[in-house]
Amino acid sequence: MRRRGRRRGPRWITEIPPVEYFHPLGIPGPVPYTVNLTYEELEALRLVDLEGHTQEEAAALMGVSRKTLWNDLKNARRKVVLALVKGYAIRIGGGSYALRGDIKRKGGEK
User: Fold this and answer.
1) Which of 15, 40, 63, 88 has its CA 20 to 30 A from that of 98?
2) pLDDT tens across 45-82, in order?
3) Which residue range forms the structural domain that includes residue 41?
4) Are strands 11-13 and 34-37 parallel, antiparallel or unpaired?
5) Does some domain include residue 25?
6) 24 belongs to a structural domain
7) Beta-sheet strand order (sheet of 89-92)
């Protein structure tokens, strides 16, 4: 089945984070649920919530519209809060992104 609308384009990210998995302490055995946070969702969180950029500035840095940045930010915040409240693990990875300064795009077309 084909998705409707435009194809998701790559977003510019600054770096691949050194840690790709977080899990809560105190839960015996493997964590039953995991939320998947993409690299571009993490980049949106980092730019807006950690570095204090406006959504317009963050969108420009990532090479997307403000609406696209807002959607990534909203999804990322929801996933992080879900993991914190429910005790889920967070896996970071994947998505459609391009590393800033890299000629070759990761997860997208050239």
Assistant:
1) 88
2) 999 999 999 999 999 999 999 999 999 999 999 999 99
3) 33-110
4) unpaired
5) no
6) no
7) 21-22, 89-92, 34-37
94: left (phi over 0), alpha (psi -120 to 50) or beta: left
Could you give phi then psi for residue 19, rounded to 5 degrees? -110, 130
Q: What is the DSSP string of 29-64?
A: SS-S-EEEE-HHHHHHHIIIIIS---HHHHHHHHTS
65, part of any domain: yes
CATH of the domain at 67: 1.10.10.10
| Nearest Cα residue to 43 out of 19, 69, 18 | 69
The amino acid occupying position 78 is R
Percent of the chain with pLDDT over 70: 84
- Number of structural domains, the chain? 1
Tell which residue, 59, 62, 70, 56, has the closest CA to residue 14: 62
Amino acid present at 104: K
Contact criterion met (CB below 8 Å) for 60 and 53: no
pLDDT at 106: 46
